[in-house]
Structure formats: structure tokens, C-alpha cells
Design goal:
Rossmann fold; seven-stranded mixed sheet; 239 residues; 7 strands; 8 helices; alpha/beta
Length: 239
């Protein structure tokens, strides 16, 4: 059995039919990830089966909440080793994607991945959210902002909502019990022009890990609010 069969089945359960060339791109991405991880701390998850479950499929689970259209503009805030942005770009090649991270070494790795995998209409940007959100070329320019960075919803909203245009969505990936966190984040989300429209809770395929996608609609411009220069979200994978 080809090792990509599990990935193909998992994607299909999410309504994503991966071609042979796309599966090959995932394999190439994995090999680059593992090789670079020997000299740079990208991930503590290194076995193929675990990477499929906890990185690739986890990243693609946003398909539970989103139906991408050709040309949709997406930004992955705090992308780290490229999650969820690279898997989403492989699976949905017609989207335009910006991978943003504050560590230049990671950006160098991601630029190599984009080049080697032949992923077009994609960029990797070395920046901090609080700085890039002031750039008119990025501020309120995106249909979707995603983040798997581990931080509370108030902090993530401050970093991410300024990038989303009115009518777009900010969707963070969360784990564990989030009820209190959601309650405490309402003021920040409202101040930044957002509104929580729904919460999609599920168990990550191939694991017993609970996950939530928080769908935050951008209902009005962010205005003059900018991300505060607070503590940086962690780029460690969700547990």
C-alpha cells in the first residue's frame, strides 16, 4: 500500500479529492520538512503517519467550514513550518496565499518549498503582524485569515482581524475547552469589527484529539485598531 493512501482517504472524507501530483507534492513537502528539521527546529512531529494526521489533515480540516473560490486571498498568520498554509495551497491551487512568520529562517525554508513544489500565486513574508497590519497592501485585503498559532482568542483576534476585508472570515484552529476563552474574547473581536458566527467542534481524524474551528465574520472595518506589541503566539503544533 502506498503511504499516501491514508492522506488521500483523509482528504476525501473532507470532500477534497487529491490527484497523484498533489499527493506527490505532499510527499516532497514532508521530505523537505524532515531534512530541514535536522538543522532548524520546525516541528517535533516527524513520523510520516503522525505528520499526515496532526499536520496535513489537521490543516485541511478548514474545508469543514470554507468553500474556496478561485482567486480567494488567504493569509496564514504565524505559519511556522507552513501549517495550515502549504497543505491548503497544495489542495486548493487556485487560491492566492500569503505565509507570514516573524522568523526569517522559517521564511527561507517556506520560499524553498514554494519554489520546489511549483506553487504559484503564493508568497512567504518575513514580518510581525503588528507591523504588516499597518501596510495598506495587506491590511483588510484578505478573504480568509487562518492561524494554528497557540494563543488566546483575544490575542489572535488582534493579530488577525486587521488583515480580513469586510465580508471575509478569520478562522483560528483551537484545541481543548474553549468556552471561557470565547467569552473573554468577545470585546476584542467586536472592537476589531468581527462577530463569531459559529463554532465547529470535531475530533481530528486518526486521533482522539478534540478540535474547534472558530468562524469569525468581519462585519465592519477594523478602523484605527492595530495589534498591540504583546507576547508572540507560540508556533508549536496543537496538542
Amino acid at each position: 500500500m502506498k503511504r499516501t493512501e491514508k492522506l488521500a482517504r483523509g482528504a476525501l472524507e473532507l470532500g477534497i479529492c487529491l490527484s497523484e501530483s498533489q499527493l506527490e507534492q505532499f510527499e516532497q513537502y514532508y521530505e523537505m520538512l524532515i531534512e530541514t528539521n535536522k538543522v532548524m527546529n520546525l516541528t517535533g512531529i516527524t513520523q510520516w503517519e503522525d505528520v499526515v494526521d496532526k499536520h496535513f489533515i489537521d490543516s485541511l480540516c478548514v474545508a469543514r467550514a470554507v468553500r474556496f473560490k478561485e482567486g480567494d486571498k488567504v493569509i496564514d498568520m504565524g505559519t511556522g513550518a507552513g501549517f495550515p498554509g502549504i497543505p491548503l495551497k497544495i489542495a486548493f491551487p487556485d487560491i492566492q496565499i500569503t505565509l507570514m512568520d516573524s522568523l526569517n529562517k522559517r521564511i527561507g525554508f517556506l520560499k524553498n518549498v514554494l519554489l520546489e513544489l511549483g506553487l504559484l500565486k503564493a508568497e512567504a513574508v518575513h514580518a510581525r503582524a503588528e507591523d504588516l497590519a499597518r501596510d495598506p497592501g495587506y491590511r483588510e485585503q484578505y478573504d480568509y485569515c487562518f492561524s494554528r498559532a497557540v494563543a488566546n482568542m483575544s490575542t489572535l483576534s488582534e493579530y488577525c482581524l486587521p488583515f480580513v476585508k469586510v465580508g471575509g472570515k478569520f478562522i483560528p484552529y483551537k484545541s481543548g475547552n474553549i468556552d471561557e476563552e470565547l467569552t473573554n474574547s468577545q470585546n476584542a473581536i467586536t472592537r476589531l469589527g468581527g462577530k463569531i458566527s459559529r463554532v465547529d467542534q470535531y475530533t481530528l481524524m486518526g486521533t482522539d484529539a478534540g478540535r474547534s474551528l472558530i468562524i469569525v465574520d468581519k462585519i465592519r472595518p477594523t478602523g484605527k485598531a492595530y495589534p498591540r506589541k504583546a507576547g508572540k503566539p507560540s508556533r508549536e503544533p496543537l496538542s
